[in-house]
Design brief:
The protein is mainly α. It is 91% helix and 0% strand. Helix 1 runs antiparallel to helix 2. The radius of gyration is 16 Å and the shape is elongated. The two termini are 25 Å apart. The mean pLDDT is 91.
């Protein structure tokens, strides 16, 4: 249960940091780098979500395989 909450906080923290970096870079006029930073943040969150789904499917598989 606590790991689920920590994953949500990790994703939210990454989102806040990426939004902050994006805003700062965009105000500096470096929009391409800001988009690249946003893309990297999205890939990191996607990696976390895919790992979580893989764990979920392994747990479901272990329940139905005797």
């Amino acid at each position: 249960m606590f790991t689920d909450i920590s994953v949500l906080f990790q994703i939210a923290g990454i989102g806040i940091i990426v939004a902050l970096i994006h805003t700062i870079l965009k105000q500096m006029g470096k929009e391409e780098i800001a988009q690249f930073a946003t893309l990297i943040g999205f890939i990191i969150v996607l990696y976390i979500v895919i790992n979580g789904l893989a764990d979920l499917f392994n747990q479901i598989k272990s329940v139905f395989i005797f």
